[in-house]
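Shipment paperwork, digital attachment
Item: protein structure file
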Amino acid sequence: MTGMQQIVLERYCDGAPKPTDFRLETVPLPELKDGQFLVRHAWCSVDPGTRSRLSGGDSYAAALPLGKPIDGFSVGEIVESKNPDWTVGTQVFCAGGWKTHSVQSGKGFIGRVADVHGVPLSAWIGVLGVPGLTAWFGMKDVARFKSGDAVLVTSAAGPVGATAGQLAKAWGASKVVGVAGSDAKCLWLVDEAGFDAAINYKTVADLDAAIAREFPKGVDVLFDNVGNAMVNRVLPLMAMHGRICISGQVADYNLPAEQTPGIVNTKPFITHRVNMQGLVVFDFARGFPEALSTMAGMIASGALKTQEERFRGIAAMPEAFCGLFRGENTGRRVVDVSA
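Attachment content:
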């Protein structure tokens, strides 16, 4: 084994990403230095947040240079090691990128996969990866969830939103309502994920009125994955001392700054003492082990439902990613890069 495959940025994305913005290439496997080890990836993920680095301008992370491999999360097995703490045969999850292999040092976002019956390996870059961790810490620490809260989750059928809503229910929410983009997604949220209600924003006649009907006393927690237009819409519907967690902005990632909607309904920040805060999940790294252990147990017991869309072959990664921005995904998209 002398080569590996990776997906690199061919051209900067203008608007919604296209498969032609990316290029598949084969490169030699790097030689390991002392303290490093080589991970052969089994699964890689595609993440909406990656889009923020692909336009040539800095976001909360620096812009990705042309020709560089795309960021992403991976799970696989150590196949070579010059680090005694990380032995060959160990299964790990890591920030490996859109590649068939990655060199790791044991630092940064990496951990050993726990052998939990009923939890598939791919889950460690799904609910047991950044999406689930974002839901956990976004709801618990940023939104400061408390039992009895009435919770609205947007992009609720995605892995972050679905997990956030289920955690809120498990922790004692009085009501959890999701907003999603198809009847099938809404049905899954209610029948499988245990949401109290779900609203199809594409077909409802008046989204504002539909949300207001579900929350006659106001929204205690808005867990938003969509963007400024959604926040602006819900702000007048927030309850006293309501909290807004900005988890993602999937509707805004493809927009230049001058076209991104503004937030103008600011009065509730004063009248209702509303608090709004975003998060980068790695700020909470010390709490990852507890969160992952708890959620793994919930998946194994059936208390936390997950959805996956599986693609085959690393060449499928660009199309799997681009489909996220067309609203095609149902749950977490992962790619079998060992194929």
